[in-house]
Design brief:
This protein is mostly beta strands and 327 residues long.
């Protein structure tokens, strides 16, 4: 028989109503999804699960008040994630691109004056660096060049790069055609190409944490407060925590350090755990993978004479990084 009961957990109302089933022997059973909602870990494969089969869980059904009082050991609770991820996520707002044109410029000129028997002044030259972009919902076409003159050359123009770029914000992908720079690792050498490129660009997703950050975990047998200290500085304090928990999204600086997790109950008794951590922007969080793939003709003479494309020397480059684990 299905029952919708107000749940009391370890003598405290949790403000949730869950669906239970009264078995022929008078005991209660519940679906795994419902148990997870009220904070009880349940094995998969049995649906519904008799509460009497769960280790560390006892239940008492009060028919007149339509409530169920559940006593659960701390090790039988689900892991509650504390921190910024616990908040309700913001709705996704897709990026929008309209039609338009943008231009940047840098002007530079130089002159010198010699001090000697007679005074003389000389104009050394001037340069104008231009960067123009035409953007639309279909992509962005960018063009850069330098216009300038020196004492030894007349006015001239040098084309730097012409590139069409299209991005996919949802999948963090970027496509380029034209003048591209090959991707790579910290120890590899980039190459300028005239060709095509597709690569992962995590900067398109400001909400995505790409670094593997340490998560501190603990257990509170009774309602307690949790304080997080990083290098002897308190960075977070969370109250009313009970059962198993994990503190994620800890504000950390790159490099190594020490984290302290202090769990304090209502009587003031404190339990402290210490752990060392290391954070590096060169690592990928577990489950993420990064790549760059490009093909084209190598380009030389960039910024000097407009560049030369060696079409007889096809170039292919690919790089792959994978975040195996958060270890």
């Amino acid at each position: 028989m299905p029952l919708h009961l107000d749940v009391t957990m370890n003598g405290r109302r949790i403000g949730k109503i869950a669906e239970f089933f009264q078995m022929p022997d008078g005991g209660l059973a519940c679906r795994p999804a419902e148990l997870a909602e009220i904070g009880i870990a349940a094995p998969a494969g049995v649906d519904p699960i008799p509460l009497s089969k769960l280790a560390g869980v006892t239940a008492r059904y009060d028919a007149p008040s339509q409530t169920v009082a559940i006593a659960v050991a701390a090790e039988s609770t689900t892991v509650r994630r504390l921190g910024e991820r616990e908040a309700t996520p913001r709705p996704d707002i897709p990026a929008r691109a309209d039609w338009g044109v943008a231009a940047n410029y840098v002007f530079f000129a130089g002159a010198s004056q010699a001090i000697g028997g007679n005074w003389s002044r000389r104009f050394d030259g001037a340069s104008l660096t231009l960067d123009g972009r035409f953007f639309s919902p279909h992509g962005t076409l960018s063009q850069s060049a330098i216009l300038g003159t020196t004492t030894g050359t007349s006015a001239g123009a040098v084309r730097l790069a012409t590139t069409f770029t299209r991005v996919d914000e949802e999948r963090s992908l970027m496509w380029r055609a034209g003048d591209v720079v090959s991707g790579g690792l910290a120890w590899t050498r980039p190459v300028r190409l005239g060709g095509v490129q597709v690569q992962r660009n995590f900067s398109l997703r400001s909400d995505l944490v790409m670094l593997p950050l340490p998560a501190l975990s603990g257990t509170a047998a009774v309602p307690s407060t949790v304080d997080v200290w990083i290098n002897d500085q308190k960075v977070r304090s969370i109250g009313e925590v009970e059962g198993r928990f994990e503190v994620a999204d800890i504000p950390l600086v790159t490099g190594s350090g020490e984290a302290r997790l202090v769990v304090r109950d209502a009587t003031g008794r404190a339990v402290e755990n210490r752990s060392s951590f290391y954070v590096s922007p060169r690592m990928l969080r577990g489950g993420l993978w990064d790549f760059s793939l490009e093909a084209g003709a190598p380009r030389t003479g960039y910024g000097v004479d407009g560049g030369r494309y060696h079409v007889d020397e096809t170039f292919l480059s690919w790089t792959l990084r994978d975040g195996l684990t958060d270890w």
